[in-house]
Design brief:
CATH superfamily of chain A: Intracellular proteinase inhibitor BsuPI
Structural class of chain A: mainly beta
Order of helices and strands of chain A: EEEEEEEEEEEE
CATH topology of the largest domain in chain B: Thrombin, subunit H
Radius of gyration of chain B: 26 Å
Distance between the termini of chain A: 41 Å
Shape of chain B: elongated
Structural class of chain B: alpha+beta
Number of strands of chain A: 12
Strand order of the largest sheet of chain B: 16-17-18-21-20-19
Number of helices of chain A: 0
Shape of chain A: globular
Oligomer: heterodimer
Low-confidence stretches of chain A: none
Distance between the termini of chain B: 48 Å
CATH class of the largest domain in chain B: Mainly Beta
Mean pLDDT of chain A: 96
CATH topology of chain A: Immunoglobulin-like
Number of helices of chain B: 5
Order of helices and strands of chain B: HHHEEHEEEEEEEEEEEEEEEEEEEH
Mean pLDDT of chain B: 90
CATH superfamily of the largest domain in chain B: Trypsin-like serine proteases
Largest sheet of chain B: 6 strands, antiparallel, barrel
Number of domains of chain A: 1
């Protein structure tokens, strides 16, 4: 699959200030690309971890959703987008990653993005 | 390829080249050990190969044709002796000397069929398609004399309520003839016993589709993969499992081993960790009442497994899988008892 999966989040935030996280899936090619997703409403996950790897928040941590597979064709240049927020409770160095489950053995993952949270 | 030149291997178009190419040494190796090279000019034998490939593989029961460089002979694989006789008769007509021809009986080469391929007759666990979605066929059932299959309610155009969802197997683009149409999918309701405030509820995420005329199905059969053990994720089909009947419990034993087979993760297995639990469906206002939860330390469910048949260690049909957690280590299924209560009493075995 030639899709680009990226995450946008502010590099700095404060305790108690909402961090807006945006995931984007883009077809950078000149051809339509078939993409597979989990759910009728596409399921996406966001993971926030400390520098030492300990996970402090996971969007889909406790949810149980339908195991249906959705097939979408992304046109050349088309972008799909998902948003959610995270509320930091402690200062520190964090990393954020977006995950798109599908029927592939491994889900699509964005690179980790650092977020510095000050008191 | 040491002995069988892939460029010269020709199999009938209805068969699979990949399988033939992978099976290189086994069928032909004994020939090299016993047969000395023929005395004809290799270029002449290649010409005979061209003739036999073109004409011979049009005969019923032929499997492959090859020019074997080691023995300098034309090799024709056939399924049975009658086909071999036809090939030898053809060789005589084409002027191919018997000394330059080897006719070998061998197994026909077939597709490695998977749960995501077209499967006929239709059985539980194979891929079904509607709209922009893929799910798994649950199980075949007869309801009021109507040949049907059951899958998840959310594997219809609208979860709860009958909209006449049209199904294809495995994909409309592969087989444009629809296999069935949704005929039963009770609506979700508020304020029924056990339903949380603000939620719409049912006791099963299940719907029934009637097979269209001319579509064949095997009652009581669910897909068997070639996996020797569960949780290997093989999707290669290896026949079917005969269901021993329906398990009509709505409470399953904690720790009880439960199986499922579906188009994404194949045959998987886990242990019951909760029984008759009310489960909120993430991202919706739906709750499912009296569901069974199965868990493992490895993945046992994936996107596209919705609708999969769930069965016990005794091969008794236990229900319909509808959901899981994001990591796939937990699945939820609606017990067959609840499915029967909502869809009517279904005959699931002959």
């Amino acid at each position: 699959m030639t899709l680009e999966f990226t995450l946008s989040a502010p590099t700095r935030s404060r305790v108690g200030a909402t961090v807006f996280v945006v995931l984007r899936l883009r077809n950078p090619s000149r051809r339509p690309v078939e993409a597979h997703f989990l759910g009728r409403t596409i399921a996406f996950d966001i993971v926030v971890a400390r520098d030492d790897g300990a996970i402090v928040w996971r969007r889909l941590e406790h949810g149980v959703g339908p195991s249906i597979l959705q097939v979408r064709i992304l046109k050349p240049g088309e972008t799909m987008q998902w948003r959610d927020t995270w509320l930091p409770r402690e200062p520190g160095h964090y990393r954020v990653q977006g995950i798109l489950p599908s029927d592939a053995p491994e889900p699509l993952r964005t690179p980790w993005t650092p977020v510095e949270v000050s008191p | 390829m040491s002995r069988l030149n892939p460029l010269r291997l020709i199999v009938p178009t209805a068969l699979v080249v990949v399988a033939a190419c992978q099976d290189t040494t086994t069928p032909l190796a004994p020939v090299a050990a016993r047969v000395t090279p023929s005395t004809y000019a290799p270029q002449q034998v290649r010409g005979w190969f061209d003739l036999m490939a073109r004409e011979g593989l049009a005969l019923p029961g032929t499997v492959l044709a090859d020019y074997d460089e080691t023995t300098n002979r034309v090799v024709v694989g056939v399924e049975h002796a009658a086909a071999g006789a036809s090939v030898r008769a053809l060789a005589v007509r084409l002027g191919v000397p018997a000394e330059a021809l080897v006719v070998r009986e061998m197994e026909p080469i077939r597709f490695a069929q998977t749960l995501q391929d077209r499967v006929d007759p239709r059985i539980g666990g194979i891929q079904i398609h509607f709209g922009n979605f893929l799910c798994s066929m649950g199980f075949n059932a007869v309801d009021g004399g109507q040949a049907s299959f059951v899958t998840a309610s959310h594997c219809t155009n609208k979860q709860g309520g009958v909209e006449g969802t049209v199904y294809y197997q495995p994909l409309q683009s592969v087989d444009g003839v629809s296999i069935g149409t949704e005929v039963e999918d009770p609506p979700y309701q508020r304020n029924i016993a056990g339903c949380p405030h603000g939620k719409k509820c049912r006791h099963s995420d299940a719907s029934r589709a009637a097979y269209n005329a001319g579509i064949t199905s095997a009652l009581g059969q669910i897909a068997r993969t070639d996996a020797a053990s569960p949780n290997t994720y093989s999707l290669v089909l290896n026949g079917s499992i005969s269901l021993s009947g329906g398990d009509t419990r709505d409470h399953f034993g904690i720790g009880e081993t439960i199986n499922k087979v579906g188009r994404t993760t194949g045959w998987t297995q886990g242990q019951v960790t909760a029984t008759c639990a009310t489960v909120n469906v993430s991202g919706t206002n739906i709750s499912q009442i009296c569901q069974t939860i199965v868990e493992n330390s490895v993945q046992i469910v994936g996107a596209g497994d919705s609708g999969s048949p769930v069965y016990t260690s005794a091969n008794a049909l236990a229900g319909i899988l509808w959901g899981g957690n994001s990591s796939g280590t937990l699945l939820v299924f609606s017990p067959l008892k609840n499915v029967d209560d909502e869809l009517g009493s279904l005959q699931v075995t002959p």
